[in-house]
Amino acid sequence: PDLPPILAIETSCDDTAAAVWADGRLASSVVAGQRVHEGFGGVVPEHASRAHERLIVPTIEAALAEAGLGMADLGAVAVTVGPGLAGSLLVGLSAAKGIALGRGLPLLGVNHLEGHVYSVMIEEPRPSLPFLCLTVSGGHTLLTLVREGFAHEELGRTRDDAAGEAFDKVAKLLGLPYPGGPHIDRLAAEGDAAFLDLPSPRLGPKGRRGDALFDLSFSGIKTAVRYWIADLPEADRVGIVERHRADVAASFQRVVVESLVEGVRQAVEETGVRAVAVVGGVSANSGLRRAVTEAGAADGFDVFVPDLQHSVDNAAMIAVTAAYKWAAGETSDLSVGATPSLAL
Ligand code: KG4
Ligand code: ZN
């Protein structure tokens, strides 16, 4: 639609991001990764909010410059309101409110998860609604049916860890840096996927137990890797783990990818919806992209994945979601707050 430029801000976790949506397309997208968490094996919330505070203004300025626009050209400001870390969300919210208030612009609050879902709308080819959406990120793993009017019908989810969390925890067990997903992905390509026999995360109707169409549990697989390591002869434990890193990575990635893709195939079969989006940080995984594309070709459904840089957290997905919301007349009150546990 023909809307004035939207500036979008995303600070829900450990990436400070800003993007501009103008003339019906992405005009710029900047992600300032925070390097402050590397030595900690995970995100330290207090460090994240302080880093956002330091990076937010330069990131917004960079996004505007890249779009060739100034503050005066903006028509609206969009911002992630949740889910995420409270202190991190508040930095983005405060910046967005300051701009909206100062320039008299409408504010568009966006759900981070809805942003991931709409990340397949940033570029062509875009799915038409309704479509099935597999959201696999560091904090969430769920399958939804996306309908007109920003309706998301949940078909199932993980009961414990998110897929990305499982990647990160197994990577940590293997002594890899945080976030471990990309490292597992890279190592899996050169490992033997039959090395470890790991339990399938599937609990659904055709899985071991559970009743939802897409019911998953990732905690058992992480525990199985931990037991494998614990059972190794102590004298050479570190050496064996190091020699078999790629094999464990490949074995782990295989069962995770299989469980996700099998769940998707079954959902396609049961709903008859033949468009599938795969979004969120884990959708950057090369094994998952390949497997879901092959399943689509075999079963006859269309697969939509965001560009790699839009799989992981970014503000472009917040900008495009805001464009759809604004076009539908949905704006937020300036009193809107952060909702750390906001659901889709
Ligand atoms: O969507 P995202 O950037 O942040 C959240 O909203 O959680 O997802 C981050 C997650 C991390 O767990 C990270 O390890 C995982 O996405 N990830 C990957 C890959 N790239 C990022 N997991 C597997 N393979 C990848 N290539
Ligand atoms: Zn995310």
Automatic annotation (TrEMBL):
Residue ranges of every copy of the Gcp-like domain listed in the record: 28-319
Please provide the record's keywords in A-Z order: Acyltransferase, Cytoplasm, Iron, Metal-binding, Transferase, tRNA processing
* Cofactor details (free text): Binds 1 Fe(2+) ion per subunit.
Q: Which cofactor does it need?
A: Fe(2+)
GO molecular function list: iron ion binding; tRNA N(6)-L-threonylcarbamoyladenine synthase activity
Q: Main EC class of this protein?
A: transferase
Any one Pfam family match given in the protein's UniProt record, by short name: TsaD
**Could you tell me where this protein is found in the cell?**
Cytoplasm
Q: What is its main location?
A: cytoplasm
| Gene3D superfamilies tied to this protein | 3.30.420.40
**Annotated GO biological process:** tRNA threonylcarbamoyladenosine modification
* Membership in a protein family: Belongs to the KAE1 / TsaD family.
Described by its record, this protein's role is as follows: Required for the formation of a threonylcarbamoyl group on adenosine at position 37 (t(6)A37) in tRNAs that read codons beginning with adenine. Is involved in the transfer of the threonylcarbamoyl moiety of threonylcarbamoyl-AMP (TC-AMP) to the N6 group of A37, together with TsaE and TsaB. TsaD likely plays a direct catalytic role in this reaction.
Kindly provide the name given to this protein in its UniProt entry. tRNA N6-adenosine threonylcarbamoyltransferase
Write the lineage as a comma-separated list. Bacteria, Pseudomonadati, Rhodothermota, Rhodothermia, Rhodothermales
